[in-house]
């Protein structure tokens, strides 16, 4: 263990041979378990005879207090706290405590899950390095542009700023066994593609789809109702009424794929959905 502030746990596995430093992250949000379960299995396998062929693997359990409370965060969303002047409380300090370790990371895979069922997908910046990392995860869908609308405040954004490559993997619905499997296989796929683990026959990816987040639609009131149930990346027609916000229809002038629709109770300013343009 190389870092444990009481707020996070960081463990290092070093091959002793030249190669990249890769960090697999779970628990940025304390109520999302797939990353924690993937890290537990990965650490156990390395402890009982698994061997890194090159480079160094870091496993980061990011927000121990939120995990103990089974809450997304304690005071402030950790994935909005990096470089954010209005961040406060536990997560503001946690982001500062994590910062010195992030400069060591060549790649960071941040494992997440969602409250509703979704096809697994990655999110990150649109650079050749990020796309290459995405291709190594074995997932099929890559979204980019969230950071333009949210500001560069996520953990992966901070790693990007420091010269590394950070990608989020949204692995499926929280608590589903299949989501845990996808989180683990995504991490293994990346490590094998980087030749850090012994090669095995990898499941080929059927195809890759790149989705640009053109706009994030936010709630203007606490009275948002969707017109039907939307799955992540469902196609939406131009000018189709997606929802009503305080009685006003919410539409978009182009066909798009709806991204991360939040169909629960929304407050003013909350993200309702992203407008995804398939490239």
TrEMBL record:
GO cellular component, one term: cytosol
Domain Succinylglutamate desuccinylase/Aspartoacylase catalytic: 19-118
Keywords from the named record: Hydrolase, Metal-binding, Zinc
Entry's Gene Ontology molecular function annotations: hydrolase activity, acting on ester bonds; metal ion binding
UniProt cross-references to InterPro entries, sorted A to Z: AspA/AstE_fam, AstE_AspA_cat
Necessary cofactors: Zn(2+)
SUPFAM superfamilies given in the database record: Zn-dependent exopeptidases
Gene3D superfamilies (alphabetical): Zn peptidases
Leader peptide range in chain numbering: none
Keyword Transcription: no
Protein name in UniProt: Succinylglutamate desuccinylase/Aspartoacylase catalytic domain-containing protein
């Amino acid at each position: 263990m190389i870092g444990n502030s009481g707020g996070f746990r960081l463990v290092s596995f070093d091959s002793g041979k030249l190669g990249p430093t890769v960090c697999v992250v779970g628990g940025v949000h304390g109520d999302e378990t797939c990353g924690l379960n993937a890290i537990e299995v990965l650490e156990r396998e390395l402890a009982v005879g698994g061997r890194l062929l090159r480079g160094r693997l870091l496993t980061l359990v990011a927000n121990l207090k939120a995990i103990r409370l089974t809450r997304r965060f304690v005071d402030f969303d950790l994935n909005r706290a990096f470089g954010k002047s209005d961040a406060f409380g536990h997560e503001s300090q946690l982001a500062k405590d994590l910062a010195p370790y992030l400069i060591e990371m060549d790649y960071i895979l941040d494992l997440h899950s969602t409250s509703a069922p979704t096809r697994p997908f990655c999110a990150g910046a649109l650079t050749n390095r990020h796309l290459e990392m995405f291709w190594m995860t074995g997932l099929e869908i890559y979204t980019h542009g969230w950071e333009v609308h949210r500001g560069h405040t996520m953990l992966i954004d901070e790693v990007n700023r420091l010269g590394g490559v950070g990608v989020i993997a949204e692995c499926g619905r929280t608590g589903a066994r299949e989501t845990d499997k996808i989180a683990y296989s995504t991490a293994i796929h990346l490590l094998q593609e980087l030749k850090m683990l012994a090669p095995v026959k990898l499941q080929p990816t059927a195809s890759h789809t790149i989705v640009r987040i053109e706009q994030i639609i936010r709630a203007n009131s606490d009275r948002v109702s969707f017109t039907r149930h939307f799955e992540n990346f469902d196609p939406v027609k131009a000018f189709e009424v997606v929802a009503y916000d305080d009685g006003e229809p919410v539409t978009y002038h182009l066909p798009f794929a709806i991204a991360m629709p939040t169909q629960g109770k929304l407050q003013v300013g909350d993200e309702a959905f992203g407008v995804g343009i398939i490239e």
